[in-house]
Amino acid sequence: MDARSRAAAALLLDFLERSENDEGDFEGDFDQELSDDLDDRSSDEEEQARPTFGGYEYEFVDNVLDNQICPVCLLPMRDAVQTKECGHRFCKDCLHGILRSNHPVCPNDRQNIKRKGGFFSDKAWARDILCLRVKCKQSATGCGWIGQLRHAEDHQKTCPYVEEQCRDCEANIQRRHLNTHYKEECPKRLVECVHCQKKYRFMEKTVHEDFYCSRYPLSCTNNCGALQIPREELERHISEQCPLTEVTCPYAKAGCPYKDKRVHLSRHMETSVDNHLWLTWYSLVETKQELGNLKDLRQKYIKVQFVNERLTQSSAEFVGEIRDLSAAVKRLEAQNAKQVKQIEDLTRKLEKVQKPGKSYSSRKNALNNSY
Questions:
Q1: Could you tell me which residues are beta bridge partners of residue 200?
Q2: Does the residue 119 lie in any domain?
Q3: Which residues contact 77 (CB under 8 A, 6 or more apart)?
Q4: Which residues have a Cβ under 8 Å from the Cβ of 72 and sit 6 or more positions away?
Q5: Is residue 82 part of a domain?
Q6: How many domains does the chain have?
Q7: Residue 110: inside a domain, yes or no?
Q8: Pick from 89, 99, 127, 263: most CB atoms within 10 A?
Q9: Structural domain containing residue 114
Q10: Helix (H, G, I), strand (E, B) or coil at 90
């Protein structure tokens, strides 16, 4: 072997060694990733959150090879992984389910699968599957999209045939019809009343029109034939305009007893002119008599008012005299009190000028006895 051949062989051996080292490193990373994934999904709740099937649930246009089908979920493999011992391939999630058992074995040949280092990610296999063409999941409802599997998830995010929940009524509506649903179909959409211009939910239309709309057109309750009367004007129509409303004669205050529908009132007025004139005459006579009585009452009132004024003046005069007398009494009482005090002072002075041992009273008594 010449030097050139030996150099080529050395390069080949070096490449193979580096490939084995890279594969070992990759497998170690994948094993660690799957182990971490097993730890993260240890709870029952998270276990239920995993997909029911690990593979792709699409309708494939291209032929799917038998060895591209996962033997666990029987679907085209998602994130294909391959065991080292037997070389069988599975979906990553399907292998995850196998490794959770106490004794993980391959479902094809029952060979043991090591949890550490017993498998590796087959990216080439996964890439081939992702290149297969599939139909949109909404193809049954009309979507004609066909594309590579790798683009299917992105298409689903914008597919107009995917159903979304209406934010108001929570119905599932295809995206392409959602705007129309919001504007024309949703029972909870806001609409404007054509009569009163107030907004309400479409499902409440009957309630709004029957109870709340002030301009909703109604028919006259007297069945007079009037239609399209706004609700807020119906009462005025019945009381002022309806020909079938029962009314009284305009001369009722004069004594006319007529009471019938408004439609007959004009005929009554035409045929009862004389009667109304007599009633009016009698009313005028009675009014004149009442005016005369009121005149007499007014004169009496004036007299009573005059007497009342005189009495008021007299009362005022008496009040003044009483006030003066009260002042005079107070002055006399003051003078009397002053005189009483003077008498007491004089009595004390007299007692002082009397002889010792004899008081004024004793002298007075002696003098009286001498007589």
A1: 191
A2: yes
A3: 54, 55, 56, 68, 69, 70, 89, 90, 91, 125, 126, 129
A4: 54, 90, 91, 94, 95, 97, 98, 107
A5: yes
A6: 1
A7: yes
A8: 89
A9: 66-135
A10: strand
